[in-house]
Design goal:
Elements: H1 3-18, E1 26-34, E2 37-41, E3 44-48, E4 51-58, E5 66-70, H2 90-96, E6 101-105, H3 116-119, H4 130-138, H5 140-143, H6 164-171, H7 180-199, E7 202-207, H8 210-220, E8 225-231, E9 270-272, E10 285-287, E11 302-306, H9 317-325, E12 331-334, H10 353-365
Parallel strand pairs: 5-6, 5-7, 7-8, 8-11, 11-12
Antiparallel strand pairs: 1-4, 2-3, 4-6, 9-10
């Protein structure tokens, strides 16, 4: 054996010895694509709308339902597959606890094919820069003026360009299709339904922009979605300090099942609350009477989570409030209320990510999931 190989082997042994975790034992580590269809173009047939799925199947499966991760804007599945400071991610956390795990890249995002002629332009602009990420995700305690941002303590490093942890995080950020709200909701609904038809019943763990996508998948396959954990879900019907309107369908921009049925979003009349329900949240847009229900989401256990230090932490409550008004029971948890403090929007990458995942695991266990 050469000296290089001996040194490499010795380094590997040292790494294993330093790791507090036992080896991760998988029965299968593979991938496949869900959904998609052939589309005729001027240059020939292409497949569009398919979703990349990374499947991690533990050697010993101890839970009947799998877990599907759905990412937020500008993110791919790597968000759940590890942390930028080199720790295991939420995907491995749940694999170690006997769950089949499926990590997705949204259609036209990351490892899912993107066709500019069919899917539209990418977002780009200031929202996709390192400066935007520093201000809203990693170093808002120094760069954002909101009081809650000053409470941010959990990012593993200074959170600035040039730091190795930040650089690893930002290297994974991608652009999203410009028409992502309506386009992605419709394509994710189809691809998510195809995924559940293939893998069977599953728990959805969504983040940020992925929140609305989770409601769409649950609407498409309500009997196959066994629970939804929505981490800081976007498209919140929040009354913003500046002029704003709620999402067209309350919690989504594209059609979702209401009772009585909705054939035009204008049939859903929204009215702003005159004051928020409590000081730490914002006022919400709610339905004006008569209130329609969201029947496909009823009966699905739902947990909605907000961090302490995210610049938008006061927004996510309105998703919970809107769902409850529409007849959908759910648990809303501000992490600080259960002693998990200092987190911002990218909590799955922060120093206490395992503590948060453990809370999710306990919530699921109480529901025999």
């Amino acid at each position: 054996m050469t000296l290089v190989r001996l040194l490499s082997a010795a380094a590997a042994v040292c790494l294993l010895a330093a790791s507090p975790l036992a080896p991760l034992v998988l029965a299968q580590d593979t991938f496949f694509f869900a959904g998609g269809e052939y589309v005729k173009t001027a240059y020939g047939d292409v497949m569009d709308g398919q979703m990349y799925v990374h499947a991690l199947i533990p050697w010993k499966v101890t839970h009947r339902d799998g877990i599907v991760f759905i990412t937020g804007r500008n993110s791919t599945g790597v968000t759940f597959e590890g942390t930028p400071d080199g720790r295991e991610g939420w995907a491995q956390f749940f694999v170690r606890r006997g769950y089949r795990v499926y990590v997705t890249d949204q259609p036209a995002r990351g490892r899912s094919a993107y066709h500019p002629d069919l899917d539209g332009k990418l977002s780009g602009g200031s929202s996709a820069t390192a400066q935007a990420a520093e201000r809203t995700k990693t170093d808002q305690q120094d760069l954002d003026s909101s009081p809650q941002s000053k409470l941010h303590t959990q990012w593993p490093g200074p959170g600035r360009e040039g730091d190795s942890v930040f650089d690893q995080f930002f290297a994974a950020q991608v652009e999203s299709v410009l028409t992502e709200t309506d386009w992605t909701e419709r394509h994710m609904r189809a691809a998510g339904a195809a995924l559940l038809d293939r893998i069977g019943p599953a728990i959805l763990i969504t983040h940020s922009q992925g929140g609305a996508l989770g409601w769409k998948v649950a609407d498409a396959r309500p009997k196959l979605v066994k629970a939804v954990i929505a981490v800081e879900p976007a498209l919140s019907p929040t009354v913003k300090p500046t002029s704003s309107e709620p999402p067209l369908y309350g919690i989504t921009e594209s059609a979702i099942t209401y009772d009585p049925p909705v054939t035009d979003p204008q049939q859903i009349v929204h009215a702003p609350q005159s004051a928020p329900d409590r000081p730490e949240v914002l006022a919400c847009w709610l339905q004006a009477p008569p209130v329609r229900t969201l029947p496909t989401l009823m009966g699905i256990p739902i947990l909605i989570v907000a961090s302490q230090a995210s610049p938008n932490s006061g927004n996510h409550y309105c998703v919970s409030r809107y769902l409850k008004q529409a007849g959908v029971a759910n648990d809303y948890v501000a992490l600080a209320d259960i002693g998990i403090t200092g987190n911002a929007h990218m909590m799955m990458l922060e120093k206490n990510s395992d503590q948060i995942a453990a809370f999710f695991a306990r919530w699921l266990a109480r529901r025999n999931l």
